[in-house]
3-oxoacyl-[acyl-carrier protein] reductase (Paeniglutamicibacter sulfureus), 287 residues
Amino acid sequence: MTLTPAVPETSTTAFATAGRLHGKVAVITGAASGIGLSTARTFAAEGAIVIAADLSADGLAREHSTAENIHTAPLDVADSAAVNELFADVEAKHGRLDIVINAAGVNAPSRAANEKLVESNVKSFRAAQSGEEFHPDFLSDISDEDFRRVMDVNLFGPFYVIRAAAPLLKRTGGGAIVNVSSAAALMGVPMPLYYPASKAGVLGMTRGAAAELAPFNIRVNAIAPGAVDTPLFRQQPEEITGMLIGMQPIKRPATPEEIAQTLLFLSSEAGAYYTGQTLSPSGGLHM
C-alpha cells in the first residue's frame, strides 16, 4: 500500500503547531466522505499528519488533493493483506502511529439491498401515518452473501485495522483507537440484521481490545451516532430522514463536523482517562 502525499496549497501557511494533535500520526478509514472526511480535515487542522484511507480512490483525490498534511491511501478494509501493507507503509514513512479512527462502513451490502431497505422503510412510515399495520420481513430476504459482506466491512475490517495497528502503537509508546459504531447497536429497531449485528460486534471488540491494550497506554473507545447529515443520509427519501430525526429529542441530524469533534476528544489528551467506552452523539436517541 503506497501513500500518496497531498499537494500543499501554496497560499496556505504551515499547519497549526499548537494544535491538540500536533506531531501525531493518525490513520482514518472511510476518509473520502461523511464522518471520516470531516475527521481527516479536523485532525489535520489540529496539527496531525493524517493518512486518509478509503475504498474510493477518486473520492480521496477529489476531497484531499489540495489538503495540507493529508496523505491518501486507497484501501479496502475487508482485505486483511492490504490493511497490513498500509500500516507497514505508515511505519516505513513516518516511524510512528498515534491515532486510528475506524470510520469505514456500509449500511447495506449492495445498491439493490439498500433500495429494498428504503422501500420497506417508506411502507412502514406510510402505514404508520394511515394507522395501518405493516410488518417488514427482513430475515427471509437476507442471503448468506449479503450478511457476510456487511460483516466483512463493518466488523472484520475494524478487526484487521486494530490487529495491524496495535504493534506500531505499542512501539510508539501508546495512542488511541476509536471505532465508529451506530445507535442501531444500542437499540432494537426493525432493520436488516447484518447492520446492528456488525455494529454491536464493534462495541464488544472495543471493550475487549481496551482491556488488552491498556497496559501499553493504548486507549480504545467507540462512538454510536444517531442521524448524521452525510451524503448517504441525504440520499434517503425526506419522509424517512424526517422519521429518523423525529425519533430524537434533538430534532435535527448531527453534522459530520460535530461527530469529528467527539472523535477528536477521544483521540486527544482531553480523553486520556477514557477507555472501553461508547459515547453516543445521537441527539438523545439513546440515553
About this structure: The first helix runs from residue 34 to 45.
